[in-house]
Write a structure and sequence with these properties.
With 247 residues, the protein is of the alpha+beta class. It is built from 7 helices and 10 strands.
Amino acid sequence: MMCAGSDTRMHDVQQLIEQALARGQGALSEHDSKRVLAAFGVPTVMEELAGSAADAVQAAERLAYPVAVKGCSPDLMHKSDRGLVALDARDAAAVEAAVAAIDEAAGGVGLDGYLVQRMVRGKREIIVGGMRDALFGPCVMLGLGGILVEAVADVSFRLAPLGTRDALEMIGELRGRRIFGPLRGEPAADCDALAGVLMSVGRILEECPQVSQVDVNPLIFQGGDPVAVDGLVALAAPGGAKGGPQA
């Protein structure tokens, strides 16, 4: 079954998913996951996938320092815990050192390359997720906490597809919703833009039956604007078992 839509971007998404399934992948890499997110209108961090240390330096210079450097593979999750993420690299030497450290930490995991990202600054981090419930079908989750989401456990759920009212109600249901107002010198969060992200995640699940799960963690507010800094799209053939990286 094809993702709905006939434009070039939707065709590219479907091709990306089908090629990953043909290779036996349980998930897309972070870079490819964010390509899917962006195709559905989720604002994502500016980034480039580099094949070598020299390419990573060139990418960093195009993006402008400081940058983050990550190992990129569909077989990797929890990259920070494995030493596969370097933040705030401020010059070519720091990027080269980051690539060397990632190569060493990756061990036997084959990398697609090195993901070079513009650093996103913000005091507010949230998580947006989507999954297929065995009983209710596609649903969308919003939670506070970034890497602490499991400890904070402040979440809201809705069934997909979502309308604008549904998405705004999710935001209002969070116990920590005050973080969306002006905070420590930062402007109020653009809740309409966040509602758009929630609706987009629901659309991915509705329109792409091969997608079993979507995780955007963290989504950082840069000023008032939400930006997806990391993302995961897990796959399963329609009617098949749920996929996901095991590393």
